[in-house]
Amino acid sequence: MIQDIYPRTYHNEYQDTKPAENDFILVFHKNTILVRFQNGKLRYPTLKETGSFSCEYYYLFSIDHYKYFLAKPAQNLSISADAKPAIALNGYHYENVSIFRTAFSRHTAFAGITAHHLFNWYQTNQFCGRCGHSMVPDHKERMLFCPDCHNMVYPRISPAVIIGIINGDKILMSKYAGRPYTNYALIAGFTEIGESAEQTVAREVMEEVGLKVKNIRYYKSQPWGFSGSLLMGFFCDLDGSDEIILDKNELAEAGWFSREEIALEDDQLSLTREMIMAFKYSSHFFMQE
User: Fold this and answer.
1) Cα separation of 83 and 39, whole Å?
2) CB-side exposure of 209: number of CA atoms within 13 Å?
3) Closest among 115, 224, 74, 109 to 160, alpha carbons compared
4) How confident is the model at residue 198 (pLDDT cuts 50, 70, 90)?
5) Under a CB-based contact definition with an 8 Å cutoff, are residues 94 and 86 in contact?
6) CA distances for 79 relative to 124, 169, 269, angstroms
7) What pTM was estimated for this model as a whole?
8) Per-residue pLDDT at 285
9) Mean pLDDT (whole number) for 13-29
10) Please, which residues have CB within 8 angstroms of residue 163's CB and are 6 or more apart in sequence?
């Protein structure tokens, strides 16, 4: 999966530090990031290259001994449709963050989408949601602080579930409605206030495909910066009728697929695809009593 960057090591401990000339600087503009390609691999600028621009820099994280920072240009960060990027560099261009789904190398893609998660958090919380005062970054931890009403805001992580529904020797796969991603996936949804992850599984399955499930069991989790989420994967067994009642607002289609009918292969990226591959290639793991 995208976070599996071994033998490199991700360090997310906050540091109150400034970038050195060879540290990586991540520059976002809306849903795009400033990058270049070197030998087919994604590369980010360093402070040596962005230093001529007037910016604030926020420490993000480190991978091995390499530090990554977020650049905030001194100009007002307008989010209007016609706003232009404040930083431009020769040899670099802005790419949509969806590039991280296919980019090499793996740790560079993981760094980019994790940074975009934090970029969105900083953008959304420029002003206090309680009193409207400008927020300022804390110097002891990754937190934004309101000097007027003392409100503290931490990065938001939304819990969500990925659900593999097993019906004998078949699994339910679906396609999203109205989304750029058009491959088959699994039922998924965000956890609501006051419910457990297991309750989310049962509710989302009923809402999206009208099915009941049992034997809900945890599989694995994944940080998913594309939606600012922590994904929790569960497998469960069909309980009762296998007739699908499709929520067409959420899904374009859904159906039961045997292992032989699954044409997908592992993309080494998502929990969804890993769970589909686990079902496809590990039949003994899913044998029902």
Assistant:
1) 32
2) 30
3) 224
4) very high
5) no
6) 11, 49, 30
7) 0.90
8) 61
9) 97
10) 186, 187, 188, 201, 204, 205, 213, 233, 234, 235, 236
